[in-house]
Amino acid sequence: MALPAAAQTAPRPAAPAAATAITPIAFTERTLPNGLRVYAIRDTATPNVAIQVWYDVGGKDDPKGKSGFAHMFEHLMFKATRNLVPEQMDRLTEDVGGYNNASTGDDYTNYYEVVPANHLQRLLFAEADRMRSLVVEPTSFASERDVVKEELRQSVLARPYGKLFSVYEPAVGYSVHPYARGVIGSIDNLEAASIDDVRAFHATYYRPDNAVLVVSGNFDPAQLDRWIDQYFAPITRPDTAIPRVTVTEPARTKAVRYTVYEPNTPLPAIMVSYHLPPDRNADIPALTVLNTILSTGESSRLYETLVYRDQLAQSADSSFDTRQATGNLVAYAILAGGKSANDGEAALKREIARFRDTPVSASELSEAKNELLTAAIKGRETAEGKAREIASSVLIDGDPRAGERQLAAIARVTAADVQRVARTYLNEAQSATILYLPEDSKPKTATGDTITTAPTVRVADLVPPRDIAIVRPASAAERVAPPAPAAAPVSAIPNAAETTLANGMRLVVVERHTQPLVTATLVATGGAATDPADRAGASALAADLMAKGTKTRSATDIARQMESLGSSLETGMDRDGGAIGVTVRPDALPAAMGIVADVAINPAFADAEIERARAQAIDANSVMMKNPAQLAAVVASRAVFGTQPYGAPLAGTPASLKAMTRQDLVNAYARTWTPSQTTLVMVGDIDVATAKQVAETSFGAWRATGKAVAAPRAQPAPAPRVVVVDLPGSGQAGVVVARSGIARSDPRYYPLAVANGALGGGFSSRLNQEIRIKRGLAYGAGSSIQARRQPGLVSARTQTKNVTAPEVVGLIVDEMRKMGTAPAATAELDARKAVLVGGFGREIETTAGLANVIGDYVVEAVPLGELQRYTASVAAVQAADVQAASAALLDPRPASIVIVGDAKQFIEPLRKTYPTVEVIPADAVKLDSAALR
Predict the structure, then answer these.
(1) 445 exposed, middle or buried (CB, 10 Å; 0-12, 13-18, 19+)?
(2) Of 51, 181, 565, 910, which residue has the fewest beta carbons closer than 10 angstroms?
(3) Are 586 and 20 in contact (CB under 8 A)?
(4) Beta bridge partners of residue 435, listed in sequence order
């Protein structure tokens, strides 16, 4: 859909009508003689430029017997062209402080980059070269096919509920249209693809008259036109027609229902889907509002009824998937422990029926419109966001102004419109239902249903065009190099104004008037590190409960009132501090801050809310325990830190959560939330004087009621371990190699940050090169540092098929060791520094991103002047500094190794290298104990 989605619920005070006008995206458009459609959005306030090329080809166009083909082809577009060597796209983007990526939908494949504006010409050259002259050769083809298999294992087979969303939902959604096959395909279909298929696919669909080019950001319009004419205009437009899917999905007139039993399914899930008309249909605005009311936020109908009131579900949501042709509205719920799948199904369908039977309230309608407006503004904060809206509008709707048109239509939607579209599209006879149940709950006499793509789905063979040219890399003498970058634009780092209220609370304000948005984040120091050893998760649970009722507001009041302003209240807790945040339009800020203050100062910790939150946290834990990557990360923290504060699971364990009393939660709140430990960060369309007035009004009367407790100091790390958590039937193994690192205040922070960038920070990093690019053993591999008030975790991680887990462990250990044995090349370090600086620049481009950076500085006790010093601090790091930091802090000898997966597939090879490996069955893991058993 062209607009971002959002939502709301039942009787409440009417929300104010949206008062903030959204400025339309200003763009120019032209079509080259070869059919390429070009859109340009100029914004001189950013130092960056976004380049996006969208092709009108996606999963629906996969050839017969080769589902997943368009997605696999997307991967190959990052390999060689006639003039670019494999992975050079990453050199042109990531290594200069930008980034690139791509995605495949059912209707499109898009390629997008954000780079400093002086690199625009180089990216236009590169995008044109891969449109014109992609090289397809056996080595890259085989490697990327293996990578896609690992992506499938990771997202579909290993992740709980992966098959439900990626395989079963599209299969039951369509009986004729090729949307039924799903974008990622199957391993068998991936194996069926050949190099000749790839070349034919490129020749058929990757042509200028099937593409849209959008450039958004800081550029000279006349120069942009010259470059586009230079690089794209000479690309030949084929004289053959582009194959199009013309199949029309028939209306569903009889409800269908399936029950399946799947392994590694922690809780039952229910999914109910209904067909939607194409995105350009006049009913889409009303359906958008309906979906917003159904599922966005904690005042949405699904959350209020299934999750909050009836406690039937651990989570409930919907997806609003509109397309060029028939789409789907999918409502789903992950049930709470011990709840009946039949009851969950009935509850979901009751909520859908309410839309048919009764008009939505005026307050629900206004609230949904406010949320959609705020979401649209947030989507336009960056050059990339604006480019994405224009490109998707063109590809999905055939109209670059579809976003503006839909937003205007949403403002006109009435309650009668919502009821009408519910009665038109969401009748019971139009539903498709899946009950997705744990395999171990299957009755002995039950068989369960088999869900496959219907044999009536119409797909076509790929007919290769005549005379497909086989492109080979140019010789070194013939290769055309990308043009040199222009002079770098000057990037201004915003200044933060700081003051302190009379009660000791800090106020930090950064003015940014590019969009009518303000992000306000209340940050407090203390955090989960202060939790007693037998009360892990107390601070996190207390933070969640702060938004679940105050002395004068119920949880429902808080959600409804905040979401009526077009926002949602976000509360969170980390090791060293917590935060409460909102992003709103300026006119809604005073009311929003009144709610934030009430939540921060007057939490009620009502018994009923404690029991509800406790049950939800325990259910969330059961889901985590079935996810190999998530479980590996939690086990690694415990293995590395043992009984130290950073070792306990942040969200607690079933045992600690069950033992939690109200007083434990009150104590946890008091350890963190007091004025002298709290900072209010406000970023956006507000001036310092107004910010101070709002802060004084909201927080001026707050006085300390508890006593701050210092976090325990770090102790020596326990001995390293090799731990295997046996998760039989797991679709992949999660692998983590982790050790203790440094505090944020350590002078080695920046050398270690650069070292981590070289090791595992990005696509071009050593780990990703060795594990994904060279060997195809994983979808991705990386590393991270958690530099906190006390020394935090340094970890390298990936997911791979079970049988290759020992090989991947060996590669990670080798790369960590190598970092400290020899100095890195200057070119490698310069590229990694650019990654850090570019990532920092993109993060502070939005109000929420900048507020998060400042909030992290507050929690980590970093002076705010670091905003201005960050780039210079990174640039000052030398190769010797990186090697010294690596030798001390990336040495794998003190590291613990954790693998979570199907142990029988890899334990014997692993044991040959690590004879002392510990094997713990997943259902016997005890995260309360440093021993893990």
Answers:
(1) exposed
(2) 910
(3) yes
(4) 259, 270
The answer to whether 81 and 133 are in contact (CB under 8 A) is: yes
Cα–Cα dist 616/622, whole Å? 10
For the segment 720-762, what is each residue's pLDDT rounded down to a tens digit?
999 999 999 999 999 999 999 999 999 999 999 999 999 999 9
Band of residue 493 on the pLDDT scale cut at 50, 70, 90: confident
Rounded to whole angstroms, the Cα distance separating 337 from 622 reads 9
Maximum distance among all Cα pairs of the chain, rounded to whole angstroms: 80
Strand partners, 511: 684
Instruction: For the chain, give the mean pLDDT.
Output: 94
Cα(162)–Cα(777) distance, integer angstroms: 20
Measured CA to CA, the distance from residue 60 to residue 107 in angstroms comes to 6
Whole-angstrom distance, CA of residue 479 vs CA of residue 82: 7
Q: Which residue, 385, 313, 95, 133, is CA-closest to 234?
A: 133
**How buried is 441 (Cβ within 10 angstroms: 0-12 exposed, 13-18 middle, 19+ buried)?**
exposed
Paired strand residues for 579: 523, 572
State the Cα–Cα distance between residues 46 and 846, nearest whole angstrom: 11
pLDDT digits (tens, 9 = 90+) for 767-825: 999 999 999 999 999 999 999 999 999 999 999 999 999 999 999 999 999 999 999 99
Model confidence pLDDT, tens digit, residues 527-579: 999 999 999 999 999 999 999 999 999 999 999 999 999 999 999 999 999 99
pTM: 0.93
Query: Are 361 and 344 spatial neighbours (Cβ–Cβ below 8 Å)?
Result: no
Label residue 307 left, alpha or beta by phi (over 0 means left) and psi (-120 to 50 means alpha): alpha
Residue 42, judged by CB atoms within 10 A of its CB (0-12, 13-18, 19+), counts as middle
Q: What is the token pair recorded at 549?
A: 């009722």
Q: Which two tokens stand for residue 21?
A: 């006008």
The residues, any chain, with a CB within 8 Å of residue 400's CB and separated by 6 or more, are 27, 29, 39, 390, 393, 394
**pLDDT in the model for residue 387:** 98
- Cα 582 to chain centroid, rounded: 19
Lowest mean pLDDT, pick from 139-143, 617-621, 639-643: 139-143
How far is it, in rounded angstroms, from Cα 12 to Cα 363?
6
- Given a contact cutoff of 8 angstroms between Cβ atoms, the answer to whether 164 and 436 are in contact is yes
How confident is residue 633, by pLDDT bands cut at 50, 70 and 90? very high
CA distances (Å), origin 33, targets 37, 80, 234, 465, 757: 10, 27, 9, 21, 44
pLDDT of residue 467: 86
- Name the residue among 437, 254, 432, 239 with its Cα closest to residue 349: 432
- The confidence score (pLDDT) of residue 711 equals 57
The CA distance from 136 to 151, in Å, is 21
Task: Quick: pLDDT tens for 45-78.
Answer: 899 999 999 999 999 999 999 999 999 999 999 9
40/208 Cα distance (integer angstroms): 17
Q: What is the bridge-based pairing of β-strands 722-726 and 918-921?
A: parallel
Burial 353-377 (b: 16+ CB within 10 A, else e): ebbbeebbbebbbbbbbbbbbbbbb
Closest CA to 260 of 161, 170, 180, 330: 161
Between CA 90 and CA 123 the distance in angstroms is: 11
DSSP H stretches of helix in 412-526: 415-425
**Token output for 737:** 């190699």
Dist CA 136 CA 848 (whole Å): 42
Asked if 770 and 665 count as a contact pair (C-beta separation under 8 A), the reply is no
Query: In 3-state terms, the chain is what percent helix, strand and coil (to 5)?
Result: 45, 15, 40
- Give dist(CA 48, CA 118) in Å, integer: 8
